[in-house]
Amino acid sequence: MLDSLTLYLASAAMMAVMALLSFLTWRANKHIPGTVLYIFYPLVLFTALMSFALHGYVDNLITIFLANSLWFSASIIHALAISQFLGYRGKEFRIFVLATLFCGALLIYFTVVDSNLRNRVLASDLQHISEALFLLYLFIRFARKPYPNGSIVYILILTIISSIFVGRAFLMEDVNNFTLLKENWFSVTLLVNGVIAPMFYTTGMALLCNERREQNLNQLTNKAQKDLEIRGLFLSTISHEIRTPLNGILGSAQLILNQSTDPRDKPYCEAIINSAESLNLLVDKVLDYASLDQHNEALYEEDVEFKTWLHNLCLLLSPLAEQKRLKFELIYNLPEQACYYCDQQKLRQIIINLVGNAIKFTDKGEVKIRVELLEERQLEHHIRISVIDSGPGIEDDEIEYLTEPYVQSSAGKEKGGTGLGLAITSRLLAKLGSQLDITSELDKGSSFSFDITLVLGELSLVEQRHQSKDYLTGLDVLLVEDLDLNQKIAIEFMADDEHKIKLARDGKSAINLMQEYHFDVVLLDMNLPDLTGQEVLKTLKGMEHKNQRTPVLAFTASLSPDEIKEYFSLGIKDIVGKPIKQQKLRQALSDSQSSHAPSIAVELSDVLYDNTAADTLKSSFSEDEVSSIYNEFVLSARNKLIRAQQLLDEDKEQCIKLLHRQASTALQLGFNRYGSELKKIERRLLDNKPLKESLTDALVLWQNSLEQYLKYVREQMS
Fold this sequence. Notes:
This protein is of the alpha/beta class. Helices cover 63% and strands 11% of the residues. Helix 2 packs antiparallel against helix 3 (61-86), helix 7 (184-259) packs antiparallel against helix 8 (265-294) and helix 22 runs antiparallel to helix 23 (672-686). The chain is elongated, with a radius of gyration of 41 Å.
């Protein structure tokens, strides 16, 4: 075995290294209990070791008493540091301290009263065994699960130490001062306890601290995630609470605006309506921005035929530009059959946000989408997409802050808005590995662009396009519809088939557009805010316009036999029933250009809630938008029905309009029986028939429908 001097020197060096590493561990983990106390453990051990070495040269009671006292003190410090780290305060620690004091008393007795070196060694062994057993108890019971790696290191070395000292206690023979240092058991225990154990202890404590730090980080991450979920839930809840009174404010202001004969009331009502709509927009944007924090989902990538996809997107956006009489243009400088593998939903939202902003801030001139190839690489294209407008421009010192949430340019403050559109766009681009570049010149316009690398998709898909289609595409369509939900769904469905759409929100706008433009087909809502569809058609018959031979499709949920007979007597080509079904709309548009007989059957299940309605909406809206649409309707339906009851005696015409909008939305959202009942009530009012208890019955029917809907929602959540 190694000689005692070498072992003492190696042990001393190891204790010094352990002290240094313990100090560095403490510096990196000052907040963790026990780490500062752990620094003193190797220092006291080092002093005890030097005292034992001194005892080899100065053999007296003081040196042996000092050495063993320091060794026992180091043992207590070690146990206390580990207990603090684990947050342990049980009685076992006090038992260990008492056992150490008992061993110390035995040591004093066999040193002073009955001098016996073998018994002194035995007392020391008992103390080491008690320390090892106590620490093994802590790590096996309290540390093994939360700190598996550090526990493995500690349990291994403590098992070795306890085995060595148990072996020495039972197997070492009598010794004296001359034979002790030459004894193999002495060399082995000094090697393990003085050289090997410090390495394990230092490594073990470092691992324990790392695992504690990792736990803290996980806890912070979980807390942050929960905070995001709570914030999202709060925003969602508070938005619905805001929207309910907002609906009341908007409805009341519109009623006053429609009913009042005093011209002084008009600007006040319009101010109320504009403010309420701005607040509603703010709520929507805040929810969109918050949802980016809540959802860290992977990209949903799929093959996209890029030119067709962009063309359809432009068809969706062009009605907004045409309403402001802006020129809207797509400049496409990519290969004709380019097909890319990308997350089209995120890319779509980015372009819609940028184009929506451009249209909003541009009062005259044009809005363009430019797509150009920057670099053609193997299996991927690096492209630039730009949205260019001829708006008022942006100050140079404002540009760098525009992508921050709630920050607006000077023009933005004048036009109103939330200041979240570009922030949402910027964060979506970050998810796609890109960033927004803004250039602008005052009074000349702005350009919002981003560069993105797209992987080439299956180009063979492009060649198969439209080969099996049995319906028409690319028609010029006039959509006359006042309800936003129906507008968006119809435009989305028709944009899928590359139809070019112009939008009119009322009868007078429809008449003006039909005088100015020629259309392949007109999709006419039969209940508009100012005129009925019948009145629009009768007005057109008495005037010159460009659509004398253009087929007109009735777009309505009013499908009683008398109404259907009236529609056809006015020259209606076909009827597209509400709720809107894509296949029926597609077929009706195709049949309008041929001599096919009309098909007016509307498949409407007689159920309280038709859960397939949500699937139709999800083809046009995101899940968050669908949830928002349902929540807004559900929260306001009862109040609107009560409002209709009040209007029944006060303003029958407004009551009919309110019921019409509610019925149309209810049918589109799948509340079939309730929507049908509202249509019957609307029909009776139009025919001047008594209602009896119809609105009261409708209220009961709504309650039953709501219960069925909530049952479906709970099933989906579970």
